[in-house]
Amino acid sequence: MSKYIDANQEAGKRFYQNFYDKGKVVMLNLLRFRKIADYTSLERIKPIGEISGEEAYQLYLTGILPALEKAGSQIIYYGKSKNFLIGPDLEVWDAVLLMEHVSVSKFMEFAQQEEYLKFAGHRTAALEDSRLLPSHGIKNYT
């Protein structure tokens, strides 16, 4: 079974083309944490002592909040998860994160900020596997 941590260049290109002029983008993140965070090749940010993948992800989220706010983005929801109610039994996710970005260009700006890049390694160390599904609104139902 393939593992997915980072977007590849083709997926990034499709994301940009499909969502560029759509306004707000909401990212659905499905997260599976490592039992112990893996800081191999991330020595400069490695905490003293072992930490769990979930703890490493908390370091990531806490660290990126200023960059997120600077780009006008926000975390809409972050919560624990496990098995699908409808979906494959073999896919188990530890957490779900919904992040809203004002636009694709603001998301790209956010992802290139030094404040973001400084903490992105904690995300890599934290995750065993992930999914990231961007979406844009079709109609406001409120």
List keywords for this structure.
142 residues; alpha+beta; Alpha-Beta Plaits; four-stranded antiparallel beta sheet; 4 helices; 4 strands; globular
Describe this structure in words.
This protein has 142 residues and is an alpha+beta fold. The chain has one domain: 2-Layer Sandwich (Alpha-Beta Plaits). The protein is built from 4 helices and 4 strands. The chain has helices spanning 9-19, 53-70, 104-112, 114-126; strands spanning 25-33, 74-80, 95-101, 127-135. The chain is globular.
Short recap of the structure:
By secondary structure, this protein is an alpha+beta fold. Helices cover 36% and strands 23% of the residues.
Pick out the low-confidence regions. Answer: none
Largest sheet: 4 strands, antiparallel
Order of helices and strands: HEHEEHHE
General shape: globular
**What's the mean pLDDT score?**
92
Percent of residues in helices comes to 25-40%
The CATH topology is given as: Alpha-Beta Plaits
Hey, roughly how much beta strand do the residues contain? 15-25%
Can you tell me the CATH class? Alpha Beta
Chain oligomer state:
single chain
**Beta-strand segment tally:** 4
Q: Pairing-aware structural class of the strands and helices?
A: alpha+beta
CATH architecture: 2-Layer Sandwich
For the biggest β-sheet, the strand order reads 2-3-1-4
**Helical segment count:** 4
From the N-terminal CA to the C-terminal CA, the straight-line distance is: 40 Å
Radius of gyration: 16 Å
Number of domains: 1
